[in-house]
TrEMBL record:
Family according to the record: Belongs to the mitochondrial carrier (TC 2.A.29) family.
Solcar repeats: 42-129, 145-233, 248-349
Keyword terms: Membrane, Mitochondrion, Mitochondrion inner membrane, Repeat, Transmembrane, Transmembrane helix, Transport
PROSITE patterns, per the entry: SOLCAR
Gene Ontology terms: cellular component: mitochondrial inner membrane
Protein name, per record: Mitochondrial carrier protein
Membrane topology of the entry: Multi-pass membrane protein
Subcellular location: Mitochondrion inner membrane
Example GO biological process: transmembrane transport
Xref: InterPro entries: MCP, MCP_dom_sf, MCP_transmembrane
Length: 358
């Protein structure tokens, strides 16, 4: 009996020990699953915050030039108010004051912050996915991102970000072109959204979406491709004795961003002009359609992107596709540069190890 008790006790202890071990293993496994998950979510949030801060800061810094660019794009060719960058900025200052220079910037930031956050994050994920697919091909197991792959990842990021925030861009354009001489139809961003929905329907919030998406492919794609490729070349060629990406100074990063912005906006600018004009269709209170005596004048109607291109070139010439290019160029150079540098700097501050170069 004693030996049976001992055997029973031994088996009981063994069973308890097994259960305890299984419980501990389950606990460790559970913790092992949860920890990376929480860490990944936290890293994603920090990456989105970095992108949002980069977008808001870079766009606010050039808000006056952004507003002037849109006013030049859509102004009535028979009632010219803005003849250039300096004259246009002085005219806005004289007629609307300091606040006029930043009109529409609140709405713009409400759009650009999530847009920039989604864009940078989407680029990181798209570049990872594209590189993974590229490495599945025989002989490319150890391949790295090429300028063409970066262009594809940037294009994907631009399309996703543009589509997600396009209604905000549409109403921002209308808020921006309102002046003291045009009836104030919109009191703010939410009033503009509700008014357009009520008077023109939900489809109106996506007027000009097609040229926007077509334009964002070369614009955002080239921005990322040129910026990352320039940095990669600087590191590999070592003209300044650099050995890794982290050693690139802020001025060098700003120069890379400026070059990226210049190339991207020059290629995509005509599509941006057409997008703005299509957004104004159906609205008679834009500054572009107000005559000298303050009366509203009917705007051109466009049946689509091709029709808008054709009518713009026929009525105003090919140069009309580049209206506002000068203030836009002055704006894009610091804007894109500030966005890239701010994004990477904020990620460094927040402790996010993954960089867009990775």
């Amino acid at each position: 009996m004693a030996s049976e008790d001992v055997v029973g006790k031994s088996r009981s202890d063994s069973a308890v020990s097994t259960i305890v071990n299984l419980a501990e293993e389950a606990k460790l496994a559970s913790e092992g699953v949860k920890a990376p998950s929480h860490a990944a979510i936290f890293s994603i949030c920090k990456s989105l915050v970095a992108g949002g801060v980069a977008g808001g800061l870079s766009r606010t810094a050039v808000a006056p030039l952004e507003r002037l660019k849109i006013l030049l794009q859509v102004q009535n060719p028979h009632n010219i108010k803005y003849n250039g960058t300096l004259q246009g900025l002085k005219y806005i200052w004289r007629t609307e004051g300091f606040r006029g220079l930043f009109k529409g910037n609140g709405t713009n930031c409400a759009r650009i912050v999530p847009n920039s956050a989604v864009k940078f994050f989407s680029y990181e994920q798209a570049s990872r996915g594209i590189l993974w697919l590229y490495r599945q091909q025989p002989g490319n197991e150890d391949a790295s991102l090429t300028p063409l792959l970066r262009l594809g990842a940037g294009a994907c990021a631009g399309i996703i970000a543009m589509s997600a925030t396009y209604p905000m861009d549409m109403v921002r354009g209308r808020l921006t072109v309102q002046t003291d001489k045009s009836p104030y139809q919109y009191r703010g961003m939410f009033h503009a959204l509700s008014t357009v929905l009520r008077e023109e329907g939900a489809r109106a919030l996506y007027k000009g979406w097609l040229p926007s998406v077509i334009g964002v492919v070369p614009y955002v794609g080239l921005n990322f491709a040129v910026y990352e490729s320039l940095k990669d070349w600087l590191v590999k060629s070592r003209p300044f004795g650099l050995v890794e990406d982290a050693e690139l100074s802020v001025p060098i990063r700003l120069a890379c961003g400026a070059a990226a912005g210049t190339v991207g906006q020059t290629v995509a600018y005509p599509l941006d002009v057409i997008r703005r004009r299509m957004q104004m269709v159906g609205w008679s209170n834009a500054s572009s359609v107000v005559t000298g005596d303050g009366r509203a004048k009917a705007s051109l109607e466009y049946n689509g992107m091709i029709d808008a291109f054709r009518k713009t070139v026929r009525n105003e010439g090919f140069r009309a596709l580049y209206k506002g290019l000068v203030p836009n160029s002055v704006k894009v150079v610091p804007s894109i540069a500030i966005a890239f540098v701010t994004y990477e700097s904020v990620k460094d501050v927040l402790g996010v190890e993954m960089r867009i170069s990775d």
